[in-house]
Recover the amino acids of this structure.
């Protein structure tokens, strides 16, 4: 079952024009040195986000004092790239990716590994983690193994985050947080915020990832999964397929009465049957919400790697000495960002 609305094993969003942003609708981060960071086109810097979930970002204005961990630049960077780790992890997971992306992208990009949600802080809830990240950035200037556990066990392992991942948070009559995040809910503009990014890319392991399944991480239904190629793309070892999926127009996600009844059963008297029914309903609603936007989907296969069962950590090269099979994935991320930056620069000069 899908357990997170981000549904992304590795997500990259980029390019937000200033004239499309309203502070109420989307919270972003901009980097400032001695003055506001603007590029020649008059846009605020593009904000790139590589993550294992959905994070909030906040707008900040004016000068921000130098902060520990932020490199000093001879010239102000034009883009902010935020690296966000997953459950029970730390910024050290991004050591290789940060070094390599810095080398390939140059000084136009400020690359920062978030440290506000390390280790057990990731158990405190997705909403809480998002708030901490949003507060951290202004100051600077899915799971197959879990999916197979009974929902009552989730809080034991991952606290409030577990209840949210299993969609059992809140009252039975109220949509779970992750369903709300797959749409615009009341005054919270979740999907509108995601839509402001010019480019959205998900990287997904097609196999051997025992924490996040391919269906979940690539925002696809079971019927939409096809046998992936086994040959790597030229220059990008272990990347086997790149596909652009245009927006699919449909009704916005909703929380029907049968979902409320199924949620109550999953909370009070969970069984495999009742929980599966509830997750099936929620999965379809979340996928419809996220597929209302266009995505570039990058499928990664470590079937030919020396240690294919390390796919979960290979995909972002958690450490270079053990998980370097994913170096081609990081190279692909860097080139995608460079191509996007070039398109933005070209459009600004027209």
């Amino acid at each position: 079952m899908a357990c997170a609305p981000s549904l992304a094993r590795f997500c990259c969003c980029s390019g937000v024009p200033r004239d499309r942003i309203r502070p109420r609708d989307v919270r972003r981060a901009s980097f400032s040195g001695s003055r506001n960071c603007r590029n020649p086109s008059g846009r605020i810097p593009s904000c790139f986000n590589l993550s294992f979930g959905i994070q909030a970002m906040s707008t900040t204005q004016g000068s921000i004092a130098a902060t520990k961990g932020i490199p000093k630049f001879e010239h102000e960077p034009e883009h902010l790239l935020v690296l966000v780790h997953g459950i029970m992890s730390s910024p050290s997971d991004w050591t290789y990716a940060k070094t390599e992306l810095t080398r390939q992208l140059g000084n136009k990009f400020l690359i920062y590994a978030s440290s506000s949600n390390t280790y057990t802080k990731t158990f405190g809830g997705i909403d809480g983690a998002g708030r901490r990240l949003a507060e951290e950035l202004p100051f600077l200037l899915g799971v197959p193994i879990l999916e197979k556990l009974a929902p009552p066990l989730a809080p034991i392992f991952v606290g409030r985050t577990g209840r949210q991942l299993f969609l059992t948070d809140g009252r039975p009559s109220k949509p779970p947080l992750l369903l709300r995040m797959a749409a615009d809910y009341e005054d919270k503009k979740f999907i509108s915020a995601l839509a402001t990014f010019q480019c959205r890319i998900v990287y997904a392991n097609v196999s051997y990832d025992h924490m996040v399944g391919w269906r979940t991480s690539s925002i696809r239904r079971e019927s939409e999964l096809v046998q992936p190629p086994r040959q790597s793309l030229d220059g990008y070892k272990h990347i086997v397929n790149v596909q652009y999926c245009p927006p699919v127009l449909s009704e916005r996600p909703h929380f029907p009465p049968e979902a409320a009844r199924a949620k109550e059963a999953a909370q009070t008297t969970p069984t495999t049957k009742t929980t599966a029914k509830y997750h099936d309903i929620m999965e379809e609603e979340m996928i419809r919400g996220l597929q209302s936007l266009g995505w570039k989907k990058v499928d990664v296969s470590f079937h030919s790697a020396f240690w294919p069962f390390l796919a979960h950590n290979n995909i972002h090269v958690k450490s270079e000495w053990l998980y370097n099979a994913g170096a081609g994935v990081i190279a692909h991320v860097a080139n995608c960002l460079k191509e996007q930056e070039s398109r933005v620069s070209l459009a600004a000069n027209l």
User: Anything to note?
Assistant: Residues 10-349 form one domain. The radius of gyration is 20 Å.
